[in-house]
Q: What sequence folds into this?
């Protein structure tokens, strides 16, 4: 995943509303370079309260992995779609093939140990995560196995909005930029345009989830969410 500008990847929980795919073209039009679609999961261990709430709402709506993929297969959007989910779904036989059939170009599995990556890495581009606590030798292994981009986790905590970008995010992005030619995207806690701009001074772009889902949960439709994403795009540019 390479562009001639800083990369903006907004996130949305699949099934959060009956017409959730209407958000995808709105995000693309607002300046997204790729879109992360989360498959709602009943025990999202790495997600904070906002994404957990979004997952619970989606599950209450009857959302399943199949319904998310069916909706994606019926939706046209002119940027790559990257799915995120947890390992017990990702390693199921045929899951990655189903992703590709639905037009998905990559996969994020935050709880998949490096040792289990071989189970699915030949089936789809798997973007791997590195945290500030990851030892240097382990981080080198991770970036060598990652495909598409490397996900730099900004801090040792769950996803969620924050008042400031942790210094650990900049330190980690700097280390990873020196270790790989893949784009390095910073996620977890990017919630304000200033955060995006600060992270992108070192990294290749940002992933924004909780701040978007808070707006969706509060009733914001595609147009209003697109307006927020456009402020992130402007900050990155």
A:
């Amino acid at each position: 995943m390479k562009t001639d500008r800083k990369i903006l990847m907004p996130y949305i929980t699949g099934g959060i509303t009956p017409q959730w795919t209407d958000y995808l073209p709105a995000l693309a039009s607002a300046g997204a370079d790729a879109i992360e679609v989360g498959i709602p999961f009943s025990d999202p261990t790495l997600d904070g309260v906002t994404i957990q709430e979004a997952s619970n709402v989606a599950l209450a709506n009857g959302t399943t992995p199949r319904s998310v993929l069916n909706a994606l297969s019926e939706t046209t959007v002119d940027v790559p779609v990257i799915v995120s989910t947890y390992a017990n779904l990702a390693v199921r036989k045929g899951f990655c093939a189903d992703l590709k059939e639905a037009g998905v170009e990559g996969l994020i599995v935050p709880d998949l140990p490096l040792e289990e990556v071989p189970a699915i890495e030949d089936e789809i581009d798997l973007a791997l995560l590195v945290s500030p606590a990851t030892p240097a030798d382990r981080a080198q292994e991770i970036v060598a196995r990652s495909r598409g981009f490397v996900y730099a986790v900004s801090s040792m905590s769950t996803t969620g909005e924050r008042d400031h970008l942790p210094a650990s995010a900049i330190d980690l992005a700097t280390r990873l930029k020196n270790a790989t030619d893949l784009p390095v995207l910073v996620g977890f806690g990017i919630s304000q345009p200033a955060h995006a701009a600060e992270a992108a001074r070192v990294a290749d772009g940002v992933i924004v989830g909780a701040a978007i889902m808070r707006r969706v949960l509060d009733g914001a439709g595609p147009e209003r969410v697109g307006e927020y994403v456009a402020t992130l795009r402007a900050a990155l540019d």
